[in-house]
From TrEMBL, chain A:
InterPro entries: CheY-like_superfamily, HisK_dim/P_sf, PAS, PAS-like_dom_sf, Sig_transdc_resp-reg_receiver, WalR-like
PANTHER family from the UniProt entry: REGULATOR OF RPOS, TWO-COMPONENT RESPONSE REGULATOR ORR33
Protein name, per record: PAS domain S-box-containing protein
Gene3D superfamilies for the chain: 1.10.287.130, 3.40.50.2300, PAS domain
Domain Response regulatory: residue ranges: 9-124
Organism, as annotated: Belliella aquatica
Source organism phylogeny: Bacteria, Pseudomonadati, Bacteroidota, Cytophagia, Cytophagales
Keywords: DNA-binding, Phosphoprotein, Transcription, Transcription regulation, Two-component regulatory system
PAS domain residues: 137-201
TrEMBL record, chain B:
SUPFAM superfamilies to which the protein is assigned, alphabetical: CheY-like
Name of the protein this chain belongs to: Response regulator
Keyword Secreted: no
Taxonomic source organism: Belliella aquatica
4-aspartylphosphate PTM positions: 59
Domain of life: Bacteria
Organism taxonomic ancestry: Bacteria, Pseudomonadati, Bacteroidota, Cytophagia, Cytophagales
Keywords from the named record: Phosphoprotein
Length: 337, 134
């Protein structure tokens, strides 16, 4: 099925009955299936539902409105539907200007013929379709940036100035969008990290996504955070820019640090268990062993002395266990929360 | 006896216990005892001309000079030729046992508490085989 075979729903806004009849005759000649609607004033057209048309044909001089006012009014009404302007030779210059306002095409009534009309309509509809798709996908990408839960920003590669920031960055760093747009990427860094960041940006030549690691960033309230950076080069409004994703890993780092400390403590405890606890315990076992194997009247072994040693060992053991308990209580990962 | 035995341990009661076991098990009639490694090293050094094998029962965890330092000083000395060390420790850490195995001079590794069985074990140690092979 060609474009000519699909049904065309057309709104014609034209106060001159003669012109309308001529146009509808041309259309019937060119399109197999037509759904025409005719209004003769701007006011009347605004009562229609723009979504029910594929294209709008607009005469530039209507009794209730004309010129730029009319074009703007109808374009607002038409939303995504292409508007083709029809005009006499005298209004040619304005018709050209209307393209800049957003109309799809202009046709001079004096030169109008069925072929030109058909081509203009088919072309306008198709172009608008592609344009709408583009606009939609651009909107999708903008949303991916602005609605991302992770802070993202775009900055100029040569001036280092912020060009755009997303909502997550605004709420995370505490600056408003307007404040961000007057700042450079070094304004969100502690002074001792600026050189490192600068050299990475200046030495960035290879294409593709990069993850240069973890950096210190500074929030508006002065809080230092650890962020894992990944970035990619993009063209932003004809400037070389970097699109950056800054994932705050401060808490993650604090946890890792706490876990490492905990490991140290556990190792310490394991060492104590093995060396310190076992010493009096092994002594106790040895002493009991010795008592067991000595005969009652053995003069060499002083049982009283052995008992005293056993008692000392139990006290030592008790103290060590208290010490371990203290150390264990120092392990408190919940403090981070 | 064709060999001597030295007990090196900072705990007096352990020395008494080990000495008792050594005598009872007929490992030796009169083992010498030292409460720290430094004294034991000095004694060994004084035996320079003596070729009698010296079996050192060595504690690891001692204040000042611990068992590892004792071993390092011993193997650097010129009087270690006839010295054989059997480590006697309360540590049950695998890492300590592995560390001990790296020393050529170490003939055995015994975990406390020491019992009569350990005395028999010493008699069967490969590196001390030549002393007990009758």
């Amino acid at each position: 099925m060609t474009e000519i075979d699909t049904i065309k729903r057309i709104l014609i806004i034209e106060d001159n009955m003669g012109d309308f009849l001529l146009i509808s005759e041309y259309l019937e000649e060119q399109f197999n299936q037509l759904d025409l609607e005719h209004v003769s004033t701007c006011k009347q057209s605004l009562t229609k539902d723009p979504g029910s048309y594929d294209v709008i044909l607009l005469d530039l001089s209507l009794p209730d409105k004309s010129g730029e006012d009319l074009v703007n009014e109808i374009l607002r009404f038409a939303e995504n539907i292409p508007v083709i302007v029809l005009t006499g030779y005298s209004d040619r210059n304005f018709a050209i200007k209307s393209i800049g306002l957003g109309t799809a095409d202009y046709l001079l009534k004096d030169e109008l013929n069925p072929d030109i009309l058909q081509k203009s309509i088919v072309y306008s509809i198709e172009r608008k379709k592609v344009f709408n798709q583009l606009e939609y996908s651009e909107k999708r990408y903008r949303e991916l940036f602005h609605l991302s839960p992770l802070p993202m920003y775009v900055f100029d590669k040569s001036s280092f100035k912020f060009l755009d920031v997303n909502q997550a960055a605004i709420s995370h760093y505490g600056y408003t969008k307007e404040e961000f747009l007057t700042m450079t990427v070094f304004d969100i860094r502690p002074s001792d990290e600026i050189e490192r960041a600068k050299s990475i940006i200046l030495n960035d030549e290879d294409p593709g996504m990069k993850t240069p690691g973890v950096f210190k960033h500074l929030k508006k309230d002065g809080e230092l955070i650890d962020v894992e950076i990944s970035y990619n080069e993009i063209d932003f409004e004809e400037r070389k820019a970097l699109l950056v994703l800054a994932n705050d890993v401060t808490l993650k780092f604090q946890y890792i640090e706490a876990i490492e400390k905990q490991n140290e403590k556990l190792k310490e405890i394991a060492w104590i268990q093995s060396h310190v606890v076992r010493a009096p315990l092994a002594r106790l076992m040895g002493l009991v062993n010795l008592i067991n194997m000595t005969e009652e009247d053995d003069q060499e072994v002083d049982k009283k002395e052995l008992l005293q040693h056993i008692l000392n060992s139990t006290v030592e053991l008790d103290n060590i266990i208290r010490d371990i308990t203290n150390k264990t209580e120092q392990i408190n990962i919940d403090q981070i929360r | 006896m064709k060999y001597d035995i030295l007990i090196v341990d900072d705990e007096d009661i352990i020395i008494k216990l080990v000495r008792h076991l050594i005598v009872k098990s007929n490992l030796h009639g009169d083992p010498k005892a030292f409460l720290n490694g430094q004294d034991a090293l000095e004694y060994l050094s004084s035996l320079k001309q003596n070729t009698t094998p010296q079996i050192v029962l060595l504690d690891i965890n001692m204040p000042d000079l611990d068992g590892w330092d004792f071993l390092d000083l011993l193997i650097k000395s010129n009087f270690c030729e006839h010295v054989y060390v059997v480590i006697i420790t309360s540590s049950i850490n695998k890492s300590d046992r592995l560390r001990a195995e790296k020393y050529d001079i170490v003939a055995g590794y015994i975990e406390k508490p020491v019992s009569m069985n350990n005395m028999e074990e010493i008699k069967t140690l490969e590196k001390l085989d030549f002393l007990f092979a009758d």
